[in-house]
Amino acid sequence: MKTLLSFGHGYSARALARLLPRDAWQIIGTTRSAEKAEDLRAEGVEPAIWPGADLTEALDAATHLLVSAAPDADGDPVLREWRDAIAARASRFAWVGYLSTTGVYGDRDGDWVDEDSDLRPATARGRARVGAEAAWRAVPGLPLHIFRLAGIYGPGRGPFEKVRQGTARRIVKQGQVFSRIHVDDIAQVLKASIDRPNPGAIYNLCDDDPAPPQDVIAHAAELLGLPVPPEAPFERAEMTPMARSFYAESKKVRNDRIKNELGVELIHPDYRSGLAALLRTETGS
């Protein structure tokens, strides 16, 4: 029996868990709340409320680690508490995955980046991820795999509800492009890496079609048969600092490595495919 210990068992990790057969896998997932712990238990995941729980026994049992927990102002929360314990068990792990972000590449004025591009984070979140990646790489003997995720969407994280409510905005910044990834493709890439471990590897997780965000909203409206929201110039748009920070970076992200090394064929190679699948899920058609 293999055991996955998943730190911060959230949206992407839960999608991976659905791909792991429970007759071959035990899954232990950490969460911060008792309510979410019950949700995980209902999915066949053994929950642990952490920070707070003693995870020594879980680490002893783990053959695989997945880290989704984000760094905070003091660095990586998993390493802060469990670095020595993880390092002492490094040789026992068959695979360790760390979920990072394509934000580590910073702003490229719409140009392409790949896994060998230098890291130029333009935001505090990006800088924190660069630091966390380095901290995980510094743990000796760890079979570490780093996954840099583009903007995540999927069930419950699509644009349709805002379009239906009339609150969606098509904010336009000249030359702005984002890369994205459907959660089902995140899950299949993680599973492919578990099946074909390559310690030290770094993978970009994104689809084949980086696109302006206003185009995605427009396509969602067209799929729903609703009016396309009007364009709003970025310079005059009212936005939270968090929302505005996403527009500080424009780049296109290459994903050749997940295809060439892991043999992945994307389920949703572009946002059109992904949105159509979301709508079918929502409507049951």
Automatic annotation (TrEMBL):
Domain of life from the UniProt record: Bacteria
The UniProt record lists the keyword NAD: yes
Family matches, as InterPro entries: NAD(P)-bd_dom_sf
Keywords: NAD
PANTHER family, per database record: EPIMERASE-RELATED
Name of this chain's protein: Nucleoside-diphosphate-sugar epimerase
Lineage of the organism: Bacteria, Pseudomonadati, Pseudomonadota, Alphaproteobacteria, Rhodobacterales
